[in-house]
Amino acid sequence: xxxxxxxxxxxxxxxxxxxxxxxxxxxxxxxxxxxxxxxxxxxxxxxxxxxxxxxxxxxxxxxxxxxxxxxxxxxxxxxxxxxxxxxxxxxxxxxxxxxxxxxxxxxxxxxxxxxxxxxxxxxxxxxxxxxxxxxxxxxxxxxxxxxxxxxxxxxxxxxxxxxxxxxxxxxxxxxxxxxxxxxxxxxxxxxxxxxxxxxxxxxxxxxxxxxxxxxxxxxxxxxxxxxxxxxxxxxxxxxxxxxxxxxxxxxxxxxxxxxxxxxxxxxxxxxxxxxxxxxxxxxxxxxxxxxxxxxxxxxxxxxxxxxxxxxxxxxxxxxxxxxxxxxxxxxxxxxxxxxxxxxxxxxxxxxxxxxxxxxxxxxxxxxxxxx
Length: 371
Description:
This is HTH DNA binding domain-containing protein. The chain contains 15 helices and 4 strands. It folds into 2 domains: 11-292, no CATH class; 304-368, Arc Repressor Mutant, subunit A, CATH 1.10.10. Helix 1 runs parallel beside helix 12 (269-303), helix 8 packs antiparallel against helix 9 and helix 9 (208-222) packs across helix 12. It has helices spanning 11-33, 38-56, 63-70, 80-97, 106-114, 131-134, 138-160, 187-202, 208-222, 231-242, 253-259, 269-303, 314-323, 329-336, 340-349; strands at 118-121, 124-127, 354-356, 366-368. It is globular and about 65 Å long.
């Protein structure tokens, strides 16, 4: 179904939620601007957003499983839900590391559609190539890449206004099901994505907060990529960054939408926009609370650094603790490149700020507590 932008804007119904979202998000971004724990907060926010996106779909991914999977230290075989959460995590990191305009370009959208589980190469995050694609026949892969180039060219013409959506529908390509992605690469999927891009372009004259809410709502209605409903809120957060509303972080829309989804879903477009704006405010409020807790943890840990030698690895361990909601001895040892025994000694020195949360003698996990 086509998406219709509400015109004129029903400000009488939206103004309350709009002002709450504006004020709360601005406070969070300003607080992060000069915060000593800003980097740790952003790293933790990526994990929480990945988990929240799956919870919005009705799936639960334990935080510790996601952290261990990200460190390539899984203690059990990854589930399908965990794989999706890892994809969300990689996508959010790609958005954060890319220029603000890139997610809204044809190449940027294609990159976001093709991102897989995160793999690190130095400081650069690269999407991993699935095994099934690596073993595909060259002819099939060449055909897929040709189709992708055609989609990018058509989307560029749509964005430039050179070609209407209705006239840009070619005959849908046919491929072996074994080599196709679990995403719509037929005419309907291409047209829906192009229409969503048109909606984003049409909101260029609206306030950034309202434009982001419309972008998220349009993604939900049009479903350009049905297998990735979580990409809509991430693109809404990227739009806020692109429009200059969040200069110091990528907004946590999934966590806010999860917090505010209680009650029946509004039927009208205005009600849906109010719920999204309330979700933006809720995500920023959660972010403020998390920042205050993390700042308290930082102060308690910094007090333990007094009197340490200049070559002590304790400061590095503190930074690692702030960036990860949960750590293990093996994770810290690999990150700091020191022995597990040394990590255990350092963790013991940080007690009771850093505590074991498993109660086990082996395979323990640690976290830093504010009090």
